[in-house]
Structure formats: C-alpha cells, structure tokens
C-alpha cells in the first residue's frame, strides 16, 4: 500500500466507525427520567459508571478515537459529521444517552482556526505563555485561561488543547513560547491556574505534552534520555503540580521517546507515574500523529486523536479485533471510556454544553493587554531613559514592522485576528507548511504616537541601516525593535536576532545614546549590543494588544513588573548541549513509518538542574538570570523569619521605597539542604504596593522542593537537618538568608 492509499484506508475506517456511532445515535431515545447519570448531585465517578453501564461496546469504543475535522481534502464532506465544529479534533458522542461529542480546539494562546476553516472567526490572541510566566502571577494565568475558555465555549468547543508545561531546557526550542519557562514550581503553579481558568468555563483543558518533549527538531524521533530521579524532580514535577492544582480533564502524551519508549506508548509514564503514583482520574489523549502501535491501549493511552495523522486508525477496527480476540481486555475499554466520561462530568461539559454566541472581543482584548503588561520584563534602564520623558519632542521608531503590529509564534497555537499581516515563511517541514509569520494588528508605532501627541514620531523600517542611523541621530530618544519568529516543528540554530537586526540595533545604539531596545521574541536572545543600548525590554510575543502594552510601559502608564521565567545565557556555550541533537538530520514530521532505528538520543545530562540551577552548579554567569526584572520604583525586604518543622515557612515584609506604585516579585530559593549546596525556587509572590507601602508575605514550601526523589524508597526523601533559604530579587540577586531545622521524611510520589 502506498502512503496515500494507507491514508485513504484509514479515513475509510474512521468513516465506518463514525457511521456506527451515528447509527447508535438513532437507537431508542431514553427519557431524561431514565438517565440517572444526569443527576449533577452525584460524583463524576458515579455518573460515569452509571452511563458506562448503558453503553454498547461500539459506543464505548467510539469515545476512544477521533478525527481531524478539517481534512476535507481527504475525507469527502459527507464523512465529516454534521455537528463537528471545524478545528483540531472531533470525537463522536453518544447522543441517545446525552453524551456530547468532544469538540477540540487549540490552544493555550487562544482559539485557533486552522486553515481558516471557520472563515474569519474572531478570537482573542493572548500573549505567549512565556509572557504569562513572566508575570509570576497565578491570577494573570487564571484570567487568560478564563478568557480563552469562555471563547471556546462560545464557539461550540468543549475541549481546549491548552496547558503546555514542558520545561525550557534549550533556549532555541521552537515551542518554548507556548510553555511556562524553566522552573517546575513556577510552570506548574501557573499552568494549574491557567487550567482552572479554562475549566471554570466548562471546557476541558489538556495538559501537554507529557513528557520531556523539550526540543522540536525531529520531535517524532528524539529520544529524551534522562534518569528517573532527575525527571521526577524537573519535567514531571511541573506536570504533577499543574495536574494537582488544575485538575485537567485530559493529558496529551508527546511525540518524542522517553528512555527508548515513545511518549504515547510509555507504560512507565502513563500507567505507573500518571495513573499509578499520581492517581490521575482523567484521560490520556495522543498528540496528533503520535500513535505507532495498537498496544498503546494497554500501555496507558486512552484515546487516539485525529487518527488520520497516524499510520493506522489503531483504536478503530484494530482495537475492535483486539477486544474480540482478548489481547486487549474489555475491562481496559471500560477504563478508557470511563476516564473520558468522568472528565466530561467533572468539568461540566454535559451539564453546561457550549452555547454558540459572539465572543466579547473587547473583554478578550483587555485580558490580552493585561497579560502583556504583566509579562513585559525591563532588563536594562541606564541613564533612566525610561519611562520616556514627556519633554521628548523627537522620537524615532525603528524596525520590527512596528508600523503594522507585533509578531506572534507559529504552529498549532497560532491565532490570527482579523487585520493581521501574514508573511509567508516558506521552507520545509511543518513550519514551511503552516508557516506564516503573523503580526497581530496592534501597532507599537501608532500606540507611541497616541501617548506622545506633542512629539514628532518618525519611523524607519530598518531595512537600510544608514537610514535608521540618520533617523536615530535626529531623535531625542530611539525605540528600536528586535523580533524573532519561532514556531512549532523546529528550533532555531542560535540566539541571534535574524535578518541583520543585531547589526541594526548596534548601529542605532551607537548613533544615539538614548536608544531603547524592545524585543519581541519567543525565547532568550543574545545581545551583542547591550553595552551600547540605554534600555532593553523583553516583550515576548505580546498578543492582541501588544503594541499598546509596549507603549504603556515605555511611557510609564504601566510600571513594568515582569520577571524572567527563563535564563538568558551569555552564550549558547553555557547550555548543557551547545549543539541541538540531530539538527542536521531530516526525518519525517508526520504520517511516516516510525522506524525505531532512526531515533536520535538527546541526553539530558543536566538532569533536574535546568537553567538557573545549571548555571549555579557550573558557576556560570548568565546575561540575565531567571527571576530578573526591573521596575520604575524600588523595593526593600525586611523582617525575614524562617521556621522549620516538616517543611520551611518563610515570612518577610516588602516595602515600596520608591515614589510610584509598582509590583514586586520576591523570590525564595533553597540554597542549602541539610549540608548540600543547591539553588531551587521554593516560593514566590506578586505584591502590589503603593509608594511607601509595606506588605507582609508568608510562603510555605512544598516538601517535594526540599527533597530529592529517591527511586529505591519510591518517594521524595527529605533529609533531616538545617535548611537555608535566601530571599532574593532573582536567582542571582540574593538579599538575605536564614536557616531552620527540618525533620526527615519520605513523601509519597
Ligand atoms: C501539537 C499539539 C496540538 C495538536 C492539534 C500537534 O501537532 O503538538 O500541541 O494540540 O497538533 O493541533
């Protein structure tokens, strides 16, 4: 069979399976009174059990595989179910029992409309998740989740493929912008809040991509090699915290292999850790094209997503046969279906089905702006060039398509609001296929003009350095933009700004001492021009109102309060892996035969010491460290008190000692654990303070952050002894330390 024939046969199988469930839908219509599982007073488990008992095997099975309801070029239209809302995924429901279809859409940054299938659908583009992480504020993460959850619900969706929490092990990773940085506590807490925001709108959220899916290059063939202890203390801990705090209805397993076993067939990760140790009650869905064998059903995968992307619709006919011949027990199908049903009841998609209505675009834009403002990190502000003085009469704005809008990241998470500029990217791979560099229509230039009505504001697009330099020399103050596009499916080769932007920024900063550099990037970048620039701010991909948010921070309408959720290395040589594994090898991105012999190991030898922890261990000085960020005001800490016992509790006062209101993010790091030097974030807080105001902060450390994972004891081992904690402004800016005694314990995994 050729590849297209295989594809056609799998589509046919899906169509047949869909036909079967549609037939079931015509079966005798039960009366509401005969549906005890509709009693919302019962627990989700009880409700799932009741309805499961009423289902035929075919109905149960219909819940465990889905289609890509966009593949119109492959599936004749009549085979796309009439009720399918076009987007990333569709799994038929069991209508005669009141069980809705799963209508699935991407992703964490807003409601995507792949291939414009819903024709100019309106949705809010949130800033990148890295911007949300930079807020260090769970309320911001919750509000973003609630915004997109509400929009999903208004468009007919009940599952959001949102909740990416892979840790940033490499500053070149094409998807870091969809994740929440390098620290398991920060990422886990913020992801949990984002998930709660989504699910409070009765839309299931999907924590992904489980696990150690930390590079995009050859993502289907990368084998993440990492020992269990390190994995538990890093990537898995981020998932564990996010799942505990967010209670997501589903978890998406990843494309890569982990210690030689593909993510969606990884019995250790799925059956042992997720469902065993963590007692996760929801369902595991596959990533699109990540299922390579039928036996994934017994390894812990509950649902095959968009089966067209795989070589076979494994969970359709092949699973039916396996159930018949007993190689997959009927009890396992019950478990798979029960998990899907349980999440449906737990999140409320049965009791509160989506209601199609126009989205509140103004509310969405306001939420996006708030997130962008909270996430902008001021990295340098010498000669107090910022906020831009009201007396500035000549302002030069240079580069970054700032006259048009703000750049965004590419791939399945891409939201394209009306009026966006789309530049074709070209090239190969998924990036080439889906690749459009999208600028959201929120022009920083226009926003700057609005805030400086009495100044002459002139723009140079930066294509010609000489022209930009001429403008820079004319101006009182220069705002030059540096943009870097990144996308799912690929990583970037280095930390430079592409297209000669580093040279442009260098020349402009040399021409005018009052040059402010605004970065719109999906990752840390190198700054070879930093000594010449007066100020630098990192705005990430700032979303639907990014231009306005940037201008508000430039002019001091908003006091910057973001902190780096990811270390900015001084050089890529500081990374544990200066080379990206398999960067020059080209392997299929989807739909290929998955030959195990082709896998490429990526050895995570840094273990759990990612980012700032690696730098501390190796005594490396980053360009900017994790947790770093400036404000237009100043903060002081006092009265640090640390108490011990089962864990450490840290209390202190934060005072705004400057002359304007602002938000601070005091951070607490464990610096010595029972005699062993370490560097671990164990608590943080976002404190909003008026000038002169003092607030008291108290934080209690999660014991897992004090412990080492002990595989022999199968738990988190807290050594008894003296624990030293440091109150700090960033991972490398300690303010004051203190110690307390902590008792020994083994905490369950
Ligand atoms: C991505 C997922 C996404 C899915 C559906 C995959 O390629 O890895 O994050 O949810 O596509 O679009």
Write a concise keyword list for the protein shown above:
Immunoglobulin-like; TIM Barrel; alpha/beta; globular; 749 residues; 6-stranded mixed sheet; binds beta-D-glucopyranose; 3 domains; Rossmann fold; 28% helix
Account of the 3D structure:
It is a single chain. This protein has 3 domains: 3-66 and 83-347, TIM Barrel, CATH 3.20.20; 368-554, Rossmann fold (3-Layer(aba) Sandwich); 635-747, Immunoglobulins (Immunoglobulin-like). Mean pLDDT is 93; it is low at 1-30. A 6-stranded mixed sheet has the order 1-2-3-4-6-9. A 6-stranded mixed sheet has the order 10-18-17-16-11-15, with helices on both faces. The chain starts with a helix and ends with a strand. The chain is built from 20 helices and 31 strands. By secondary structure, it is of the alpha/beta class. The protein binds beta-D-glucopyranose. Beta-D-glucopyranose binds at residues 88, 106-107, 161, 208, 287-288, 412.
Helix-strand blueprint:
Layout: H1 3-25, H2 44-53, H3 57-62, E1 89-91, E2 102-105, H4 129-134, H5 138-154, E3 159-160, H6 184-199, E4 204-210, E5 222-225, H7 228-233, H8 235-246, E6 250-253, E7 257-258, E8 261-262, H9 267-277, E9 283-285, H10 296-299, H11 317-325, H12 330-347, H13 361-375, E10 377-381, E11 394-398, E12 406-407, E13 421-424, H14 429-434, E14 436-440, H15 444-451, E15 456-460, H16 465-474, E16 477-483, H17 501-511, E17 515-520, E18 535-538, H18 546-554, E19 600-603, H19 612-618, E20 635-643, E21 649-656, E22 662-664, E23 667-673, E24 676-684, E25 687-689, E26 694-700, H20 703-706, E27 708-710, E28 715-718, E29 721-728, E30 734-742, E31 745-747
Parallel strand pairs: 2-3, 3-4, 4-6, 5-7, 5-19, 6-9, 11-15, 11-16, 16-17, 17-18
Antiparallel strand pairs: 1-2, 7-8, 10-18, 12-14, 13-14, 20-21, 21-26, 22-25, 23-24, 23-29, 27-28, 28-31, 29-30
This protein binds beta-D-glucopyranose.
């Amino acid at each position: 069979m050729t590849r297209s024939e295989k594809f056609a046969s799998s589509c046919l199988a899906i169509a047949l399976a869909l036909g079967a469930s549609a037939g079931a839908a015509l079966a005798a219509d039960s009366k509401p009174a005969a549906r005890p599982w509709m009693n919302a007073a019962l627990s989700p488990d009880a409700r799932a059990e009741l309805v499961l008992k009423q289902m035929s095997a075919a109905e149960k099975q219909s819940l465990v595989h889905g289609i890509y309801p966009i593949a119109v070029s492959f599936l004749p239209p009549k085979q796309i179910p009439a009720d399918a809302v076009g987007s990333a995924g569709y799994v038929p429901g069991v209508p005669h029992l009141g069980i809705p279809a799963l209508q699935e859409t991407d992703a964490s940054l807003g409601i995507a409309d792949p291939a414009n299938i819903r024709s100019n659908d309106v949705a809010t583009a949130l800033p990148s998740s890295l911007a949300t992480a930079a807020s260090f504020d769970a309320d911001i993460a919750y509000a973003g989740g609630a915004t997109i959850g509400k929009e999903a619900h208004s468009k007919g969706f009940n599952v959001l493929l949102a909740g990416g929490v892979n840790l940033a092990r490499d500053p070149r990773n094409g998807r870091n912008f969809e994740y929440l940085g390098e620290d398991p506590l920060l990422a886990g807490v913020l992801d949990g809040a984002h998930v709660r925001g989504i699910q409070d709108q009765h839309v299931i959220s999907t924590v992904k991509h489980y696990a150690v899916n930390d590079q995009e290059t050859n993502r289907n063939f990368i084998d993440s090699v990492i020992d269990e202890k390190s994995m538990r203390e890093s990537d898995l801990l981020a998932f564990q915290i996010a799942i505990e705090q967010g209670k997501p209805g589903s978890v998406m397993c990843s494309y890569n292999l982990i210690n030689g076993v593909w993510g969606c067939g990884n019995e250790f990760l799925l059956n042992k850790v997720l469902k065993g140790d963590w007692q996760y009650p929801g369902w595991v869905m596959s990533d699109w094209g990540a299922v390579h064998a039928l036996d994934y059903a017994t390894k812990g995968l509950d649902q095959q997503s968009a089966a067209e992307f795989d070589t076979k619709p494994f969970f359709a006919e092949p699973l039916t046969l396996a159930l018949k011949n007993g190689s997959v027990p009927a009890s396992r199908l019950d478990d798979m279906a029960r998990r899907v049903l349980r999440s449906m009841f737990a999140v409320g998609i049965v009791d509160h089905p989506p209601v199609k209505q126009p989205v509140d675009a103004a509310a969405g834009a306001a939420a996006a702006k708030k997130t962008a403002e909270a996430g902008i990190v001021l990295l340098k502000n010498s000669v107090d060039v910022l906020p831009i003085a009201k007396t500035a009469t000549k302002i030069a704005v240079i580069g970054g398509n700032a006259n048009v809008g703000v750049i965004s990241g590419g791939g399945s998470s891409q939201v394209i609001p009306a009026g966006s500029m789309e530049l074709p990217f070209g090239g190969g791979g998924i990036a080439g296929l889906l690749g459009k560099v999208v600028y959201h229509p929120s022009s920083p230039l226009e926003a700057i003009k609005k805030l400086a009505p009495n100044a002459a504001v002139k723009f140079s697009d930066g294509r010609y350095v000489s022209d930009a330099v001429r403008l820079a020399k004319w101006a009182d103050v220069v705002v030059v933009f540096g943009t870097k596009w990144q996308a799912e499916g690929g990583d970037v080769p280095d930390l430079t700004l592409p297209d000669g932007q580093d040279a442009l920024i260098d020349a402009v900063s040399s021409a005018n001492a009052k040059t402010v550099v605004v970065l719109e990037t999906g990752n840390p970048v190198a700054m070879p021009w930093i000594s010449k620039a007066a100020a630098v701010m990192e705005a990430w991909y700032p979303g639907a109102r990014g231009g306005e948010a940037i201008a508000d921070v430039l002019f001091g309408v908003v006091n910057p309060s973001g902190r780096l959720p990811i270390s900015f290395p001084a050089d890529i040589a500081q990374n544990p892996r200066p080379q990206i594994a398999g960067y020059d090898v080209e392997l299929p991105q989807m739909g290929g035969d998955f030959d195990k012999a082709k896998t490429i190991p990526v050895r995570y030898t840094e273990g759990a010491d990612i980012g700032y922890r690696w730098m501390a261990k190796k005594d490396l000085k980053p360009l900017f460290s994790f947790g770093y960020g400036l404000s237009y005001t100043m903060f002081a800490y006092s009265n640090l008190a640390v108490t011990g016992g089962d864990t450490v509790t840290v209390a202190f006062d934060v005072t705004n000692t400057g002359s304007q209101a602002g938000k601070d993010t005091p951070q607490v790091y464990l610096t010595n654990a029972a005699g062993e030097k370490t560097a671990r974030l164990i608590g943080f807080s976002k404190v909003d303070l008026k000038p002169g105001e003092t607030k008291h902060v108290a934080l209690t450390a999660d014991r897992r952050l004090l412990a080492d994972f002990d595989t022999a004891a199968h738990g988190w081992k807290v050594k008894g002894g003296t624990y030293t904690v440091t109150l700090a402004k960033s991972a490398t800016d300690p303010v004051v330390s203190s110690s307390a005694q902590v008792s020994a314990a083994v905490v369950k995994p």
